[in-house]
Amino acid sequence: MPNALPSVLKRLDATREEALSRLFEILRIDSISTDPDYAASCQRAAEWCASQLNEIGFEASVRETTGHPMVVAHRKGGRRKGVPHFLFYGHYDVQPADPHDLWTTDAFEPRIATEKGNGKVIIARGANDNKGQFMTFFEAARAWIGEAGDLPVDITVLLEGEEEAAARACPASSSSRVRRSKPITRSSAIQASGPRIRPRSRQCCAGSQ
């Protein structure tokens, strides 16, 4: 497994178009958490994420809450003795597309454009917060498991659907296995210099060490 990285990177390069297609799928789901009219879209986004995690190799499920559902996933086969355990946190909900007149195309129909100073960018609601970030993790995990058969660490995944609505349902719904995860990571915004991971932060998860 320590020598898996070169082949993982090659797999990521070889499957770039498939990964982009999957990203565009989730970006097309208008999972706006602050508007009750989009509750069905939030449910669909949660089910899509759980399906992808199961396909990658996790044991994932959609958990009902007092608001929009959460997605929780664990390593198949359970925890391994002596292996570090990390929590990956993200959210599948997005802000509304308002004001609509500032969009030159449909906010939920992703497209690739070229920006001066940034090069090629994906334009869609949620591409930068937070679907693009958790999909980076999804694809990295998919490639690593595909090459090495397992991840080098145990990871619990928590995706909520109310981050844009103050995460009202998250504290009451976090499972005990999530709360026992000691190191915390959270997918953070992609900058021009590339993606970053900001550890030990974010709302209800920050107190679960």
List the helices and strands and how they pair.
Elements: H1 5-14, H2 16-27, H3 39-56, E1 58-63, E2 70-75, E3 85-91, E4 111-115, E5 119-123, H4 131-148, E6 154-160, H5 170-173, H6 176-179, E7 184-187, E8 197-199
Parallel strand pairs: 3-6, 3-7
Antiparallel strand pairs: 1-2, 2-6, 4-5, 7-8
How does this structure look, described?
The structure is a single chain. This protein is α/β, with parallel strands linked by helices. It contains six helices and eight strands, in the order H-H-H-E-E-E-E-E-H-E-H-H-E-E. It has helices at residues 5-14, 16-27, 39-56, 131-148, 170-173, 176-179, and strands at 58-63, 70-75, 85-91, 111-115, 119-123, 154-160, 184-187, 197-199. The strands form two sheets. Strands 1-2-6-3-7-8 form a six-stranded mixed beta sheet. Strands 4-5 form a two-stranded antiparallel sheet. Strand 1 (58-63) and strand 2 form a beta hairpin. Helix 1 packs across helix 4 (131-148), helix 2 packs antiparallel against helix 4 (131-148) and helix 3 runs parallel beside helix 4 (131-148). The radius of gyration is 17 Å and the shape is flat. Residues 202-209 have low confidence and may be disordered.
